[in-house]
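One such given next:

>
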Amino acid sequence: MDEIEFDEDDILYEEDILRNPYMIKPWMRYIEYKRDGSVKALNSVYERALKQLPGCYKIWYSYLKARREQIEKQDVGGSLYNDVNHAFEKALVYMHKMPRIWIDYCEFMMKQPFITRTRHIFDRALRALPITQHNRIWPLYLSFVTECGVEETAVRVYRRYLKLCPEDTEDYIKYLIEIKRLDEAAVKLAEILNKENFVSKYGKSSYQLWTELCSLICENPDKVISLNVDAIIRGGISRYTDQLGSLWTSLASYYIRSGLFDRANDIYEEAMESVTTVRDFTQIFDAYSQCEQTILLKKIEEREENPNIEIDDDIDIELRLARLEYLKERHLLLLNSVMLRQNPHNVQEWLKRVELYEGKPQDIINTYTEAVQTIDPKLAVGKLYTLWVSFAKFYEEHQQLKDADIIFEKAIQVPFLKVDDLATVWCEWAEMKIRQNDFKGALKLMQRATVLPTRKVAYFDDAEPIQMRLHKSLKIWSMYADLEESLGTFQSCKAVYDRIIDLKIATPQIIVNYASFLEDNKYFSLEFQAYEKGVSLFKWPNVYDIWKMYLRKFLDHYKGTKISQTRDLFIQCLEHCPPKYAKEFYIMFAKMEETYPNTTSARNILNVYEKAVSAVLPEEKFEMYNTYISKAASVSGIRKIREIYEKAILDLDGNDSRQMCINYAKLETKLGEIERARAIYVQCSQVCDPRVTSDFWEMWSDFEVAHGNEDTLMEMLRIKRSVQTQFNIQVNMMSAQMLAAASNASGTVSDLAPGAKDGMRMLEAKATEVSANSGKIEKKKSSGIDFVRGETINPDEINIDESSDDDDDKNNEENEYNIENEIAIEKKEVPLEVFGNMGKGGKVTDE
C-alpha cells in the first residue's frame, strides 16, 4: 500500500480518528476537509474510513458519488470507469441490500457500452433486493432494454416484468407495436380483453381496447397469424351490440386485406341481415357499396392497361357490375328488413314490404303469410286489420275469391285489441261481396256478424273476447241497416233499426236515418214514434238534430192541423234546451204561430218572444229584443212596445242597452212624445261617459236643438257636467284602489318609478272604459226617470219657497252666461234666437 502523506493541518484530524476510529463523524469531518485537496488524498481517506467502517452506508454512498464526479469529464469506457465499477463491486459486498447503491450502479453502467454486463447487474439487483423494492429497479431496467437496441432482450425482460406488474401490459403492447411484433401484440391485447377484472391504467374502456385490437388485426392480416380473427370479431359483435356496424365492417375489411373478396361479400351480406338499427345498416351498406365500386374500378383499370386480357376477366367485370346494381336495387328492401327486425309487429313496415315486391305475386303472398304469422295482435303497432284486408284484396284483384274468403274467415278469428277492428274486417268482407254482386252473401255475412252470444256480455269488458262483443258494434249494425234498406224488405229493415235501438247503441244519426226510411215508405206515424224514441234516448246537445228534424217533419206533415200537439212538442223541446240552441227553436216556434194563426195567435207569438229573450245567449238578446219589438208592432199597440223597450233597457248591458234607449227615444220622438223621449235620454245619460260615448251626447244635443228650448238645453248640459263629474270620481276611486293594490305588492307610492304618472293615466283610461262599457240602467225610484209620466225624479232637490230678488237676478245672469259658454263649447252653430220661437211645450210655434 502506498505511504500516506500528511500535511501539518492533517495532524488534528489524524489524532481525532486515532482516538475514535470507529465513529463516523471524525471521518466525515476529515473527508470534508480533504474534499478541496487532491483526488488521491481524498480517495485515500475514503478507503481508510471504509476499512475501519465497512458497513457504513453514508460513507460508501459519499465515496461512490465522489468517484463518479471525478470521472464525469472522462471518456466512457476508460480505465477510470473500470476503477469506479470495481469500487461499486466492493461496496455491494457490504451494501447489497441498499437499493440506492444498486440504482446508482445501474445508472452508471447504462452510460457504458456493456449491454450484457449491465443486464447482469440489473438481474443481480433484482435477486439481491426484496421484492417490495423491485419497483425502484424495474423502470430503470425497462428504460435500458428498450433503448439498447436488442429487441429480443427487451421482449424477454418485459415478459419477466409483467409477471410482477400485469397492469402494465398496455406499455408492453405499445412497445411490441413499435418494434413491429404485431402478432404478439395482438395476442397480448386479446389476453387483457379476456380478463374481466382488467383495468386500463390509461382509462381506456373495454370497447376502446376492442377497437384497437380490431384495427390491429384488420390492418395487418398477414402479420397477425396466432389469433382466430373471425372468432374474435364475432365475439365483439355479440358483446358490443351498440357498435355492430363498425365491427362488421372491420371483419369484412380483414378479409378484403387478406384478398378474400368473396368471403368479404358474404360477411357484408350476413351483417345486413343481422343488424337492427338504421345507423348500423347504413354504415355497412355504404362500406359494401364502396368495396364493390373499388374492386370494379380496379378491374376496369387493369382491363384498360392490358387490352389482351382474357375473356374470363371480362366476365368477372360484368358479374361485379351486375352485383353492384343488384345491391343498389335491394337497398329499400334491405332497409325494410332492418325495420322489421327492429320491430316485427310493425304493420306499416309489412305493408311497405308488400309494395316493394310489386309485380312479384309469389313474394307478395309469402310476405303476407309471414306477416300475419309473425305479428302478435297485442303487440301490433298500427292497425292490424288493414294487413288482413289488404291480403284478401290481393286475392280479389286476381279473381281468387275463394282464397279471399279463406283469408277473411281467418281474419275474423284474430283476437284484435278493439271491437271496431273486427267490425271493419266484417264490413270489408261484405263490401267485397257487394263488389262481386253477391248481395245475398253480403246480407248473410251481416246476419252472421250480428248474432247474439249465448250469454250476456258487456261491450267494454276487455276480459271477454272481441268476437263475443261484436254484436254491439255500431259499425256492423249501420252497414247491416244500409244493406237492408237497399236489398231487404221493409219489415226486415225495420227490425234491424228496432234491434239497434233495443241494444241501446243507436246514435242521433241512426235515429234520423230510421225516421227518413219510414218517411220514404209513407209510415209517418212510425216515423214520429222513431223521433220520440230518439228524444227519450238522448240528452242535450246530442238530441239537437233529432228535435230539429222532428219538429220540421211534424210541421210539414200536419200543416197546422194539430196546433196543440205541435205547441206541446215545442214546449217539450224548449224545456231543457241550452241557451246555445234556444234561439233557433224559439224562432221556429214563433214562425209556426204566425203561419197558422187563430184567435190567440197574437198573444201566443208575443209569449214565445217574451220567453225567448230570457232563454237565449246574452250576445243574442239584443237581436231577439229587436225581433220581439218588430213583431209586437205588427200585432199589438204602443203600450206593449213601451213595456218591451223598458224591459230590454233594464235587461241588456253596455252598448246594447244604450242602443235600445236611443231606439226607444227615436220611437217616442216620431210619436210626438217629446217629454218621454227626453226622459229616456236623461235615463240613458247616466251610463254614457261623455269621453267615450260622444255620439250619444251629440244625438241628444241635436234632439234638444230640434225640439227643446233654452231651459231643456241648459238642463242637458247640466246633466252632462254631472255625469262627467260622476265618472271622473269613479275613475279616480278605481285608480286609487289599483294604485293601493300595486303599492301593497311592491312598495309605497313614493317608491314608484319615474313612469308612474304615465301608468296612472293608463289606469284612469282603463277604468273609464270599463265603467262606460259595463254600465247598466237600473230601475230605481230614487234617481232617474219615470218612463210612464216622463218626469225627472231628484231626491236631492231642495224646495225653497222664498228667495231674495238679488239672488234671482244673479242666478239668471249666471244661467245665461253658462248657456252661452256651453253652446260655444259644444261648437253648435245655432244662434240663441232659435229658441225664441219655441213654446214651453218644446214645439216650434208658427211665429
In short: Confidence is low (pLDDT under 50) at residues 747-757, 767-775, 778-847. The chain has 41 helices and two strands.
